UniProtKB/TrEMBL annotation:
One Pfam entry name: Cucumopine_C
Gene3D superfamilies found in the cross-reference section: 2.40.100.20
Stated name of the protein: Cucumopine synthase C-terminal helical bundle domain-containing protein
Domain of life: Bacteria
Matches recorded under InterPro entries: Cucumopine_C
Organism whose genome encodes this protein: Streptomyces cellostaticus
Domain Cucumopine synthase C-terminal helical bundle: 164-301
Amino acid sequence: MSEKLPGRQIEISWPDLGITVTADLDDRNPALADALWESLPYQSLQGHALIAGEHLYHVAPIPTLLHTPHTTRIPDRREAPNGTVFCSGLQHLGIKYGTLTEPMPATPVGQIRAADMPALLEAGAAIWDAVYSTKKQIIAEVRRAGEPGGHRIPMLHATNTAASHLIADIVAETEKIWLAPPAELDDLHQGIIPSQAGNFGTVLPTLLFVNGETRPLGYAAYGGLVRAAVQDMPMASLVHMARLLVGVPAEFLGYCGLEKLWAFTQRFLGVLDRLDRDDFYAVTSQMALYINCLGGWNLQLYPWETGDHLRQQDATVGA
C-alpha cells in the first residue's frame, strides 16, 4: 500500500474549463515525485491520448524526467486505478481517468482524490473534444496545493561558449512556443509550405510525416542520448550515436518547414566534438524539451477529424 507524502498535494487546473483537481503524491516513486514537486509551478498545453484510451498527458518542463530512475513500475497501466498520476521518461505528466487499451508499463507518483473524480471525467471529455475536434488550446497549470501558479522554462548551463549560446537560443524559442503555437507548425497546418513538400499540392501527408518524425526524435533519439550520457556511455560513443540519430530526421523536418529545428541541429552537430559530458547532457536535454514541445503542438494542431469516416469494425462479425 502506498503512503501519502506529508504536505505533498498538487493541484492540476484547467482554467479555460473552470476545473481543478487535487492529487496526493505518494511514496511509490519518491525520486520522480521530488522532481515533479521541485519543478512547480508550471503550465503546459494539455493533450489527450489518441490511441491508448482515456488518458490525459502533457509535456512537463522537467529535464530530469528523462532519466530519473523509478522505484515502482506498474507492468500494465490498464490495471492502475482511475485517477492515477504518472511521471514518464517521455517527459510527460499523465493521468488515467478511465479505460485504457494500451498495455504499457508506467511509473505512478500519486492519486487524484476521490471527491475530484467527477471533475476529472468532465475535464477528460472536454480535452478530448478539444484535441480531436474543436482545436481549442487548453492550458494545464500544475502547482503546489494552496500556492500561486506560474511558469518558467528551466535553462541548463554549458561551459563551452558555442554550446552555451545554443542553449540560450533553444530556451528562448522554447519559451516562445510553450504556450502558443509555433509559427512554422501553424503555417504548415494551414497549408503554407515554402518547400512545397507534399505531392501535387497535398498537405495531409506532410503533416503526417512531420508528426511521425518529430515524436521519435524527441522521445527516443534525444531522450535516449540524455539517458546514455547519465548512464556513463563513453563520450566517443555518445558523439557517434548523436551523429547517427539526429541529423537525418532533423534535415527532413527542416525541409517540411521546421527550419529552426534544423538550424539548432546543425549548430549542435557543429560543436559536438568539443563538448564534455556535462555540456553534452545540457544541450541534448534542452533539445529534448524543445522537440517534445513541438510534438505536443503537432498533436494539438493535426486535423484528426479528417479520418472521422473511418471507424473500427468488430473483427468477430461474420467470423
